[in-house]
From TrEMBL:
SUPFAM superfamilies: RmlC-like cupins (SSF51182)
Protein name: Cupin domain-containing protein
Keywords, sorted A to Z: Signal
UniProt keyword Chloroplast present: no
Signal peptide location: 1-23
InterPro entries, per database record: Cupin_2, RmlC-like_jellyroll, RmlC_Cupin_sf
Keyword Signal applies: yes
Residue span(s) of domain Cupin type-2: 52-107
Length: 134
């Protein structure tokens, strides 16, 4: 677990996958993330959140960027994260990854689907995920 946390802190950009961004965008849509908790961060206007994202088999979140940083831990299955301009990387159950703010990417589940525990920081009242056209 400690190694996963270190990886989470050290990985500059989550790169997962064998699929290209274009192929991932043609995959089925994901379910909405179930938000487990949100808490205010004292001393600024940010909020921390945590939720579970469930991906049906081969489902993909559309090409987007998050306005705040994200940390994710794959609970079940595997996901491929394709970051613009970088090779894709597959993250398996028991592994984690980090996504810096404003990095354009696509996240796609493997053939068995995936369940991901995600945490994030954001500014309430503003959109967190912003779709980015090709």
């Amino acid at each position: 677990m400690l190694n996963n946390l270190r990886c989470l802190a050290l990985v500059a950009a989550p790169l997962l996958g064998l699929q290209s961004v274009e192929a991932a965008e043609k995959a089925p849509a994901t379910k909405d993330t179930v938000v487990l908790q949100r808490v205010s961060v004292q001393g600024n206007d940010r909020e921390m959140g945590m939720g579970i994202a469930e991906f049906p088999p081969n489902a993909a979140k559309p090409r987007h960027k998050a306005t705040g940083p994200e940390l994710a831990y794959v609970l079940e299955g595997e996901v491929t994260v394709a970051v613009d301009g970088q090779p894709s990387r597959i993250v398996h159950a028991g592994e984690s990854y980090r996504m810096p703010a404003n990095v354009v990417h696509v996240t796609t589940a493997g053939p068995a689907g995936a369940k991901v525990l995600a945490s994030w920081a954001w500014n309430p009242g503003k959109p967190f995920n912003v779709n980015v056209p090709q």
